[in-house]
């Protein structure tokens, strides 16, 4: 899906939820949509400062908190970075495939994996707070190099 269609879909979703999709939130969303993988908060800040010289770290973190809360992005904990969600209208639990060579992050949305994880946790009386799964390895391109 093109970046402009993703942005329009995000705007409509925010309108339906009755939340504000501010200019800064849109800009951070667009930066992540344009990226070829995950981006750290300070990389996003550097990019944002090209159009908003006054932007500071709290600006980015507030925008990222909003995008996380509403399911537009996933946090890649092992990289301390963020990646745009490919299925943000569904606000789902994600599985991320992370290439340790090039840094590419591919999102999966397997209900079977999510169900198996929740079942295993329930059997152990464990409450999962953050169900995102990260798997590290090599993408197809890096395997061929």
Structure description:
With 145 residues, the chain is of the alpha+beta class. The protein folds into 2 domains: 3-84, Orthogonal Bundle (Arc Repressor Mutant, subunit A), CATH 1.10.10.10; 95-144, 2-Layer Sandwich (Dna Ligase, domain 1). Helix content is 46%, strand content 15%. The protein has 6 helices and 5 strands. It has helices at residues 3-17, 23-34, 41-48, 57-69, 111-123, 140-144, and strands at residues 73-76, 81-84, 95-99, 105-108, 133-137. The strands form 2 sheets. Strands 4-3-5 form a 3-stranded mixed sheet, with no helix packed on it. A hairpin with a 4-residue loop joins strand 1 and strand 2. Helix 2 crosses helix 4 (57-69). The radius of gyration is 16 Å and the shape is globular. InterPro entries: FUR (IPR002481), Fur_C (IPR043135), WH-like_DNA-bd_sf (IPR036388), WH_DNA-bd_sf (IPR036390). Homodimer. Keywords: Cytoplasm, DNA-binding, Iron, Metal-binding, Repressor, Transcription, Transcription regulation, Zinc. Belongs to the Fur family. It is found in: Cytoplasm.
Summarize the helices and strands and which ones pair or pack:
Layout: H1 3-17, H2 23-34, H3 41-48, H4 57-69, E1 73-76, E2 81-84, E3 95-99, E4 105-108, H5 111-123, E5 133-137, H6 140-144
Parallel strand pairs: 3-5
Antiparallel strand pairs: 1-2, 3-4
